[in-house]
Every structure is written in structure tokens, then in C-alpha cells.
Specification:
37% of the residues lie in helices and 12% in strands. The chain has four helices and six strands, in the order βββββαβααα. A hairpin with a 2-residue loop joins β3 and β4.
Length: 154
């Protein structure tokens, strides 16, 4: 990341300060000693949220703790998530949506314990998962079916 081999495990920290920087077009980037972070594919790390850019800069500030200290990609989870979105999801958004939608048939939100033999489990599932079902209905007009059976629901 940022040109050098910053993405390999055990990389040495080469910067003293990470900071979020607002771009002229309303996007945010993260700069290490004034140089923008680049993702493994060479794409600049740019996000829409200043709060996210601040959080990413904080994780870079913590990575390796001091110049010369070592860090790995595991120390940069927000950078990894943003990088995946930028370099892998955004270029093929419809493919990513199709891939995720394929899991809907098996989503445990729709498969519940019945009132017997464990009414407590059924109640806990309704309390925990009911709000997500309601949210999907209210915000996305999705009416997710619910069953206590084991047969797949489309």
C-alpha cells in the first residue's frame, strides 16, 4: 500500500503521520506524510465519508506504532474493507449483488425454531431477528418469508 510493499506481512512503517484529507470533489483520502495511500492494485484510497477517512487514518497511525516498527494488513481492517469495495466490488457491482443475493435462500433470518420443543429459543429469535425483517420491509420493500421448517424458501 502506498507504492512500496506495505501490504506484505511484517512490512516496516515508513511514515510518521497519517491524516484524512478532503479532496476538492467531496471525497476523502488518507495521506501518509502527505502522500496518498494507494491500494494493492494501484488505485488511490478514496472514500465518501470524512469519519471513515479519519478512522482509516487512525488505524494507519497505530500500525507499527513508530517509524521502523512492523505491521501487517491485519492491522488495517478498515483499509482492507474500503480497498475491497474500491478495487473488487465497485468495478463489478452487479456481480457482487448477485453473489450476495444467492445467500438469501439460506439466510437464518427466515429459518426459525418452532414453539416446540424450545419456546425460549423461538422467542429469542423473534426478538433478535424481527427488527431486521421489519427493516428490510420498511426500507427495501422486501417481504422475507419465515418458516419453522427445513425446506428451502425461495
Amino acid at each position: 500500500m502506498n507504492g512500496a510493499s506495505g501490504s506484505s506481512p511484517g512490512s516496516r512503517r515508513f511514515w510518521t503521520r497519517a491524516q484524512a484529507v478532503a479532496d476538492a470533489d467531496g471525497m476523502w483520502s488518507v495521506a501518509l506524510d502527505g502522500r496518498g495511500v494507494k491500494l494493492p492494485g494501484g488505485t488511490p484510497l478514496r472514500v465518501r465519508s470524512g469519519a471513515l477517512a479519519d478512522a482509516i487514518a487512525q488505524e494507519w497511525d497505530a500500525a507499527g506504532a513508530t517509524v521502523g516498527g512492523t505491521f501487517s494488513p491485519l492491522d488495517l481492517p478498515l483499509t482492507r474493507i474500503a480497498g475491497t469495495m474500491i478495487e473488487r466490488i465497485a468495478p463489478n457491482r452487479s456481480g457482487a449483488i448477485d453473489l450476495l443475493a444467492a445467500y438469501a435462500d439460506a439466510d437464518l433470518l427466515s429459518y426459525r425454531a418452532g414453539p416446540l420443543p424450545d419456546p425460549l429459543l423461538a422467542g429469542r429469535q423473534a426478538a433478535a431477528w424481527g427488527p431486521w425483517i421489519d427493516w428490510a420491509r420498511e426500507h427495501h420493500a422486501l417481504d422475507l418469508p419465515i418458516t419453522t421448517g427445513v425446506m428451502p424458501l425461495p
